[in-house]
Amino acid sequence: xxxxxxxxxxxxxxxxxxxxxxxxxxxxxxxxxxxxxxxxxxxxxxxxxxxxxxxxxxxxxxxxxxxxxxxxxxxxxxxxxxxxxxxxxxxxxxxxxxxxxxxxxxxxxxxxxxxxxxxxxxxxxxxxxxxxxxxxxxxxxxxxxxxxxxxxxxxxxxxxxxxxxxxxxxxxxxxxxxxxxxxxxxxxxxxxxxxxxxxxxxxxxxxxxxxxxxxxxxxxxxxxxxxxxxxxxxxxxxxxxxxxxxxxxxxxxxxxxxxxxxxxxxxxxxxxxxxxxxxxxxxxxx
Length: 286
What we know:
Elements (H helix, E strand, L loop, with lengths): L6 E4 L1 H5 L8 H12 L5 E7 L11 H6 L9 E6 L2 H8 L4 E9 L2 H8 L3 H18 L2 E7 L12 H14 L3 E6 L6 H14 L4 E6 L6 H10 L4 E4 L20 H10 L8 H14 L2
Parallel strand pairs: 1-2, 1-8, 2-3, 3-4, 4-5, 5-6, 6-7, 7-8
Helix pairs in contact: 2-11, 4-6, 8-9
């Protein structure tokens, strides 16, 4: 099976969403503009969800309007939580990807999007059809993809069953998401090794949360199993505010980049712009 090219997604949306203090719109826009200069493949820049649920991102449309996309190769991704949000995101021609969090955990699906899994799958079908009509791509994030802390059934077979349902709906990109940082190489590698050859029509990604000391083993396990799509956030900031009382940090983008370059991947990032973004992040997330 031919190896897919590496796709690197920077996730400032995930870094910002759980912060209590509101980041001014102009500050968000300036930070995202700097990230667009780096040359990431995808920028997970904002979300069209209820402002009551995620007040930090209530200004996503305003932020988008302030971005200059004329000098970047980076494609924009917006997270949505239901069909209404998908319709809002799809109305913006600047957005290429819509991301939806589907969970293998019934408990977390209700907690995260106020839906049952059955309702969420119906939304996925409608979102995929919407994306097909307007020339966008749906990415499904399979949250709790490496374990379920809520006591709902979990096994690799459960993940494979969800994947089959998504494949039947026509979903072409799926990211296994370690929403609370419970994944280990012993879970990551066998799961990707099973899914990637079984579903060649789907591009699999890894959205891993981690502690500062366990990042390398997780990235290595996913990469060696054939995964070539990785999400990260500069500085390892952020996490899902719906998942736990204490946020487990995102995978630090600088660590992902270091590993991928170590194994010989050519990422074609603007190093000076990356350094400037890293410095700016300290001011944004102080």
